[in-house]
Amino acid sequence: DGGITQSPKYLFRKEGQNVTLSCEQNLNHDAMYWYRQDPGQGLRLIYYSQIVNDFQKGDIAEGYSVSREKKESFPLTVTSAQKNPTAFYLCATRAGGIYEQYFGPGTRLTVT
Amino acid sequence: AQSVTQLDSHVSVSEGTPVLLRCNYSSSYSPSLFWYVQHPNKGLQLLLKYTSAATLVKGINGFEAEFKKSETSFHLTKPSAHMSDAAEYFCVEARDSGYSTLTFGKGTMLLVSP
User: Fold this and answer.
1) How far is CA B109 from CA A12, A76, B19, B43, B89, in A?
2) Do A90 and B94 touch (CB under 8 A)?
């Protein structure tokens, strides 16, 4: 996990509330990613950003939003429009010129 | 669309016996392939990667994988399982479109009994 921080580890929210998940990195990597993990589903890409002030939708972007104002930070907001937000959320980074990604420890979000 | 198929959702072995986790990829190009491991409620850790060099790739903790283009396979093996190997394993392929994103298999849970 070293160098990628996700906070908090566990997060609880009521239905209808927006919630923002934090991802910070000190690896000086250009690219950052957000994934959602559900049991038996593998990881699904929500959003990614290859440079500051630019980001692209992944496979399941509906109900989520992101920003990339600083190289070190890529926060994810889970909006009330996301129909099934309860999941384990993972942030990852990638250095330029390589293909593998490095993952943070994750945030488990529970919405009731 | 690219897809990665992990052929077993669960694999059970006894400590000290060999491990085989099976993976098939779909890319028709020369792929970049990875195996990651995830312990419960943790992030993913890179075990090994194949990027068109040697077809037998050695990783951490005694794991290795063999790339077989004729079979479109990238199976993960370990000669002798340890209790600490119990975790979920993901086979992953870099997508053809610029290699900036990854396609994940659904995962194989490895159970190790004493």
Assistant:
1) 27, 28, 12, 15, 6
2) no
Which tens digit of pLDDT belongs to each residue from B30-88?
A: 788 999 999 998 999 999 999 877 889 999 999 999 999 999 999 999 999 999 999 99
Backbone angles phi, psi at B83, to 5 degrees: -55, -35
Collect contacts of B47-51 with beta carbons under 8 A, ≥24 apart: B47/B76, B47/B89, B48/B76, B49/A99, B49/A100, B50/B74, B51/A99
Q: How many CB pairs below 8 Å do chains A and B form together?
A: 52
| CB of B39 less than 8 A from some CB of A | no
A11 to chain B: which residues are within 8 Å by CB? none
CB contact under 8 A, B43 and A104: yes
Residue with tokens 């290859």: A50
Nearest CA in chain B to A51: B100
Nearest to B44 among A31, A41, A103 (CB): A103
| SS3 category, B71 | helix
Q: Are strands A10-13 and A107-111 parallel, antiparallel or unpaired?
A: parallel
Beta strands in chain B (DSSP E): 4-6, 10-14, 19-21, 23-25, 33-38, 44-50, 56-58, 64-68, 73-78, 87-94, 102-104, 108-113
All residues of chain B having their beta carbon less than 8 Å from the beta carbon of residue A44 are 104
Instruction: Classify burial at A62, counting beta carbons within 10 Å of its beta carbon; exposed 0-12, middle 13-18, buried 19 or more.
Output: exposed
